[in-house]
Amino acid sequence: MSAPQTPGGPSGTGRAARFRALHRRPSPDDPLVLAGPWDAAAARVCADAGFPALATPSAGVAASLGYADGETPPEEMFAAVARIARAVDVPVSADVEDGYGLAPKELVERLLEAGAVGCNLEDSAGGVLKDPRAHADWLAEVCAAAGDDLFVNARVDTFVRGVTDPDRAIERAALYVAAGAGCVYPIGAPVDVLPLLRSGIQGPVNVFARPDGGPAPSELGERGATRVTFGPGLQRLAAAALAEIAADLAPRGTGS
Fold first, then answer.
1. Do 90 and 56 touch, CB atoms closer than 8 A?
2. Which single residue of 95, 117, 191, 249 could bond 58 by disulfide (Cβ 3.0 to 4.6 Å)?
3. Buried (b) or exposed (e) across 48-80, using 16+ Cβ within 10 A?
4. Residue 9: pLDDT band by 50, 70, 90 thresholds?
């Protein structure tokens, strides 16, 4: 079983360096594949299965805490990330939505205190895309505060917000890479658009995959993915499996 790690501390920079190095892939069809654990138990299962790093999904963590996606109080999200990071000895990146309105320095401090070595940061809030230049300025402050201790994955929300022109995603991605983001995440991009995004984006590209169907990570790698994540997909599969087991075990009859 994976040995637990201690959040923060002198080993934090080393874990961040390990995580950053994982994004330099040996071949196009070998993307970095990150499982998305929603609690410490799931994190240990994923680490023991051989995943080299983990990426928490905000929606999956929210479900595990009894909240709808986007409604988790920041203190509960950071506490959940800390439990996950403490439970394993592989690097952990945390989805912290749009940063919860925190100033860049405080956001970075709280992520590092939780033991995270990376983070996802969205460029929309309340279902509305942010101004890309203003968001890039904010990302630059986050990256400056983070230094080498935190790997920033800048999510590009154009496709999930109804803007289907790939050029708009590429324009935003260019601003975020220039701001210091180590990876960009055009979430919801159609598979057939990935080669165009890959050719237009300078730097690693994160692609969302379904764990219960759809293209395999190797195919997504061939189309342009540097890194593959599953969002809350694993948590939802686990919940569905538990629902079936619970239905079989639940008492039958006229009880309350």
1. no
2. 95
3. eeebebbbbbbbbbbbbbebeeeebeeeebbeb
4. very low
Burial class of residue 190 (count of CB atoms within 10 Å of its CB; 0-12, 13-18, 19+):
exposed
Which structural domain range is residue 134 located in?
Answer: 12-238
Q: What are the backbone angles phi and psi of residue 32, rounded to the nearest 5°?
A: -70, 120
Cβ proximity of 127 and 151 under 8 Å: no
Nearest of 25, 24, 18, 47 to residue 34 by alpha carbon: 47
Mean confidence (pLDDT) of the chain: 94
- Structural domain contains residue 112: yes
Residue 247 in domain: no
The burial of 133, by beta-carbon neighbours within 10 Å (0-12 exposed, 13-18 middle, 19 or more buried), is given as: exposed
Q: What is the pLDDT of residues 157-190, one digit of tens each?
A: 999 999 999 999 999 999 999 999 999 999 999 9
Q: In what order do the strands lie in the sheet with 32-34?
A: 32-34, 227-229, 206-208
CA distances from 127 to 10, 57, 135, 157 (A): 38, 18, 15, 9
Which segment of 2-16, 27-41, 45-59, 159-173 scores lowest on mean pLDDT? 2-16
User: For the chain, what is the domain count?
Assistant: 1
